[in-house]
Amino acid sequence: MNTFSSAAYARLRRRRVKEKDQKLVIVMGPTGSGKSGLSIELGTYFPSEIINSDKIQLYKGLDITTNKIPVIERLNIPHYLLDEIDPKKQPELTPLQYRLRASSVISGISSRRKLPLLVGGSNSLIYALLSDRFNPDLDPFSGSDPVCSELRYKCCFLWIDVSLPVLNEYLIKRVDDMLDSGMVSELAKFYESEVDELAPNTGLTKAIGVPEFERYFRCASANAHQRDDQVLRGVYDEAVKNIKDNTCQLAKIQMEKIQRLRNAGWGLHRIDGTDTFRAVLDGSKNWSDIWEKQVVNPSIKIVNNFLEE
Ligand code: ATP
């Protein structure tokens, strides 16, 4: 081995040893399970900074469609890799690129003596960042490639689990709320001014809502002569139905991926959020008390123990 490669090897080894001591809290769970809310609760309790691991929320734009946590609700807790990438300049951040960027964000957070909190539902990004040996050519969720069970950091995983039928009911209602909050006009602007400048089927264009509404906007922009409002209404209803179906499908797949990581020995702490979601769906006013008792307090306890280890 020459001098250069042994020095480089020693540097790499030092970095890896340092990383292995670096503590990191990860908030996982399917779409809609309350990860962002829990991360803010943790971020106000422990001096921390948040790194996003939702592959669609990485990009600037489509804030309603992608369910980004509004700035005002972030309570001044710094967020990274959220609403950060300009999709016109970088249409898709690969898992390997995410690994490199997120690990340098983690080093920055730890140099400020804060706790890094990784929050988001994209298990492929979580895996790319955390697995000790990441091979971009393998897909650990395919069923045939192995899951690396050795981790790069000292990790504390909080997994918000919600019974799937209950979560589905909530997700369907959430789509209606998103529509009421202006999702269609946000998508209309995206179709008018952005979509043609983006590479098809990459990054932001894959957000649930974009492909589902394509036919609707095509029909809506047909000239008045050809347009039939009844047909348009039918196309709209179909788009909404597809969004609801695809969101529920996404939650199911995300849960299966989490289960796969768990089966491979990733030590996930399961936090059951089902009662909170039932209370929200029943219109019960005490849902936030249940959330605090069953999700926030146990999470704080787990993180406290982890930090004391
Ligand atoms: P996959 O390998 O299937 O892309 P993943 O773990 O990398 O899975 P997921 O977070 O499960 O990533 O996202 C899969 C797909 O779900 C995205 O490509 C997108 O279509 C949709 N999706 C995920 N997050 C969002 C979001 N915040 N808003 C809208 N759509 C989303």
From TrEMBL:
One of its GO terms (cellular component) is mitochondrion. Gene3D superfamilies: Crystal structure of tRNA isopentenylpyrophosphate transferase (bh2366) domain, P-loop containing nucleotide triphosphate hydrolases. One of its GO terms (molecular function) is ATP binding. Keywords: ATP-binding, Cytokinin biosynthesis, Nucleotide-binding, Transferase. GO terms for biological process: cytokinin biosynthetic process; tRNA modification. Pfam families: IPPT. The keyword Transferase applies. Belongs to the IPP transferase family. This is Adenylate isopentenyltransferase. It comes from Chenopodium quinoa.
